[in-house]
Write a structure and sequence with these properties.
The structure is a single chain. This protein folds into two domains: 112 residues, Up-down Bundle (Four Helix Bundle (Hemerythrin (Met), subunit A)), CATH 1.20.120; 119 residues, Helix Hairpins (Orthogonal Bundle), CATH 1.10.287.70. It is flat, with a radius of gyration of 29 Å. The chain is built from eleven helices and no strands. The two termini are 38 Å apart. Helix 3 packs across helix 4 and helix 7 runs antiparallel to helix 11. It is an all-alpha fold and 260 residues long.
Length: 260
């Protein structure tokens, strides 16, 4: 076995993968602790040392993966994801680039690529993005229509919320998020008691229906990902069985030739 193959095998062991996850979690905790002036006064040097050690581990791991996989390293989008995060962490966080210091917490996102279940969820979300974009477009259209109606119906009674289309759009977005929508509805209902019909219908359409559509698209994408993974696994198993069968047939033919 070549050195490259040994490095690849080491990187793929469960021990190394779990060790990287532990380093990511510890680094995320230490970066969070650095936001505390109390902890920085007492453990500032230790926290900085842990941060530098974690960064060194990440750089070493990326270098090892690059050495082990060579060109194949760049074929995996998760490798690009990890590399970008590590490169951001290497940028000096001083002077005009001091804002980069706040981005160190992005290293915690490496947990997504390190944990297969998280990677699966993110992959499903990316797969579902076209369907989600259609739902977002539908939701924007719904909010726009409701804002035009609300401006015409309630602009004269609650002008601070519905006097113009931009204000109505913002108010309806606030209602969609569930932020104090009852207060908004009561303000309008003091002048137009029937306004509850509009608000209930809008909340049902914008929140519950849209949310369920989002969930349905993501779940469908995850089910498709599971199906593709199972099919791929079955193909691999069939290929392995086929190779073993060919080997047995070759041995049988060789034995027959020897007896003759």
């Amino acid at each position: 076995m070549s050195r490259q193959e040994r490095v690849r095998s080491a990187l793929e062991t469960r021990f190394v993968q779990r060790a990287i996850i532990v380093v990511i979690l510890v680094n995320a905790v230490t970066i969070g602790c650095e936001t505390s002036s109390y902890l920085m006064e007492r453990l500032g040097g230790t926290l900085h040392a842990i941060d530098r050690i974690a960064l060194a581990v990440f750089v070493a791991e990326i270098a090892a993966r690059l050495y082990a996989y060579r060109r194949d390293f760049f074929k995996d989008p998760w490798n690009w994801f990890d590399t970008v995060i590590v490169v951001i962490a290497l940028v000096p966080a001083t002077g005009p680039l001091s804002v980069m210091r706040a981005l160190r917490i992005l290293r915690a996102l490496r947990l997504v690529s390190a944990v297969p279940s998280m990677r699966k969820v993110v992959g499903a979300l990316l797969t579902a993005f076209p369907g989600m974009a259609s739902i977002v477009g539908l939701l924007i259209l719904l909010i726009y229509i409701a804002a035009v109606i609300a401006t015409q119906l309630f602009g004269d009674v609650v002008p601070e919320r519905f006097d113009e289309l931009p204000h109505s759009l913002f108010t309806l977005f606030q209602i969609m998020t569930g932020d104090d929508w009852g207060t908004v509805a009561k303000e309008v209902m003091e002048h137009k008691p029937w306004a509850w019909v509009f608000f209930i219908a809008y909340i049902l359409m914008s929140t519950f229906v849209a949310l369920n559509l989002f969930i349905a698209v993501v779940v469908n994408a995850m089910n498709e990902a599971d199906t593709e993974a199972e099919v791929s696994q079955l193909k691999d198993e069939l290929a392995t069985l086929h190779a073993k069968l060919d080997l047995l047939l070759a041995r049988e033919q060789a034995g027959t030739s020897t007896r003759r």
